Amino acid sequence: MIKIKRRRQPVIYLDIRETDPRRNLALEEHLFRTVGQTDDCFLLWQNRSSVIVGRHQNTLAETNGAFLREHGIPAVRRLSGGGAVYHDLGNLNFTFITARERMEAMRFELFCTPVVETLRELGVDAQLSGRNDLSVDGRKFSGNSQYTSGGRLLHHGTILFAADLETMTAALTPPYEKLQSKGTPSVRGRVVNLSEALGGRVSLEEFRRLLANRALRGRACSRFSLTADDWAAVDKLAREKYGSWEWNYGDSPPCSFSVKAYWNGCGTVEARVLLREGRIETVKFYGDFFGEESPAALEDALCGQKPEPAALEHVWNSIPVTRYLHGVRREDFVRLFDGARESA
Question: Which CATH number does the domain housing residue 195 bear?
């Protein structure tokens, strides 16, 4: 681990207690583009259950959409690259904002040092592993990513402390083994909660305090309070960007997949799909099903739609689907894209 020379520039420290992922990512961006343009900042924050997707990833390829919908878990795209991560209230996030010329971009170890030092003081030998991860005994507990713009650098990282790993696995595992995508796939390795590594000796709140003390050691803290205007700008950004389908799904790179299902009374149906900007660009149906007419009209009706139950419900209500897929039931058709998928 590289030791960093302690810098004496004052730093704004915000211990954020908001837990809405859209609002927190909006707040992070707002700070980066306002006070963060001149001042160094350090933030600690948490999100309630959510999947945070990397800037260059295909959200549909990285998540189990059916599971997210069933459990009310939002997928939200962040500014920085890297892989998709799961957040909940057992996860702690940290953010540094600083001048790019003072901290070389993509030197992840420079910003991970406070986490490593905090854990070593607690008797846990944490290590930087891979490009941007922190691990204990070969098991990952932290992923990190960065965003740069206008001479400023934003570094943020996750810390699995007491996260629901079962939910994390289900939320981040798409319902198919392979998906051919031009986006960046996440690397899913073995993970560990720090509560386990620490043997339950330290609570998340206590670790939060210790990490803040370590990160701010040798730094003067500047006084800063968010104004009503700041919060109004954050809420606008959360609503119009981080809460929008266009940002979270529509901004995804193209991908293609096939889905196959057997429906009683209908037969085997396979749909081969190309998605662009999160919507169906082309789809072709194959299988041993019967129909009064070629499924070409159904394929045309699906183009431009999102591969989600609500969109398929709209198609079902718009055209006589059973004319093309004889015997199919509405409840099966609208869940078509929740089935097991393979690369097309």
Answer: 3.30.930.10
